[in-house]
Amino acid sequence: MTDEIKKKADTVIASTYARFPMVMERGEGCRLWDTEGNEYIDFVSGIAVCNLGHAHPAVVKALSKQAEILFHVSNLYYTIPQVDLAEWLVNHSFADRAFFCNSGAEANEAAIKLARKYFSDKGEKERKVIIAMEKSFHGRTMATLSATGQDKIKKGFDPILQGFDFVPFKDIEALREKITSSTCAVLMEPVQGEGGVRCPAPEYIKEVRDLCDETGILLIFDEIQTGIGRTGKLFAYEHFDMEPDIMTLAKALANGLPIGTMLAKEEIAASFTPGSHASTFGGTPVVTAAALEVMRYMEKENVIGNCQEMGDYFLEKLLVLKEKHKVIQDVRGFGLLLGIKLNTDGKPYVDKCIEKGFLINCIQDTILRFIPPLIVGKEEIDALVMCLDEVLG
Known about the structure:
Elements: H1 2-12, E1 24-28, E2 31-34, E3 39-42, H2 45-48, H3 57-67, H4 80-91, E4 97-101, H5 104-121, E5 129-133, H6 142-146, H7 151-154, E6 164-167, H8 172-178, E7 183-188, H9 202-215, E8 218-222, E9 246-249, E10 260-264, H10 266-269, H11 285-300, H12 303-324, E11 328-334, E12 337-342, H13 347-355, E13 358-359, E14 361-363, E15 367-370, H14 378-392
Parallel strand pairs: 3-13, 5-6, 5-7, 7-8, 8-9
Antiparallel strand pairs: 1-2, 2-3, 4-10, 9-10, 11-12, 12-15, 14-15
Helix pairs in contact: 3-11, 4-11, 12-14
């Protein structure tokens, strides 16, 4: 059955992924099962999406209940789940307004458009350029790949869009030198996820905020991977005693259903007027009902507290592995966004872990990334660490 499905998929689905040779059939909590009955402990979570694990009963109940009432009516009308989710996000963040779409790339597109329109509305039409970071990742649409600081993402898609400059991550002087009278915003991830789990010093983030204030430009935080509790705070910006002007979310917001959100302060969000931006499927009743239940459940059950505790525990275990295995150059990250940098290709270790029943992720060729559900416990972490100890040896 598995071979038949793979053969069919390779015939009819675009080859945009180098897929692993298994067909996932069902999931529960931190575990997945394939069509051959093999069980895996999941430290990928749909790439930081399933923060409450697979088939979480509270989310299933919320979306099923809403599906029986109303699927879709268009954003020409108000719907209760969308309004309630927007209110929850605004009340729990720096922002005053939410714009809903379907993905992280779309949320970043909205942020790019809003930053430029805000200055255009102010009469500063020359302010169009957005400064992003080298090794960043912001999406695969033409605008967001143009804003991504990795050449491999852009290869073959010339001409890319203009209006983006790049500076090294964690280099405040390079950023200062790049800002001109044409700059409208800085776009950055507070922690670079796909770029290698690269974490800045808190002082750097504060310096970026101060520099944006000093020069009158906006600060956009891409929290598509770091948001919704992944770093041990609801949003990663909370670690740094500052606030961005615009923030983008997606991935874990609805625990697997497609949703993106751009949050912004009132003065800036006011530049999005009727007809200036839109999304047909943005914030549908079913998806926003599920997302609202995710938010409420995380708050009620202190899921972020578990993320903090398990993140610290996991980090300690990885540091012990580093002392034991010379192949590990560095351990990085916080919360349950963690990685180990190897001095060799990481893919063979991913394959070995899969053989032993563990799903992990390799990025930037040499970095093993661990992004389990935020409900993960010591049992699953200990099992993976034991596996890593064996395969790294």
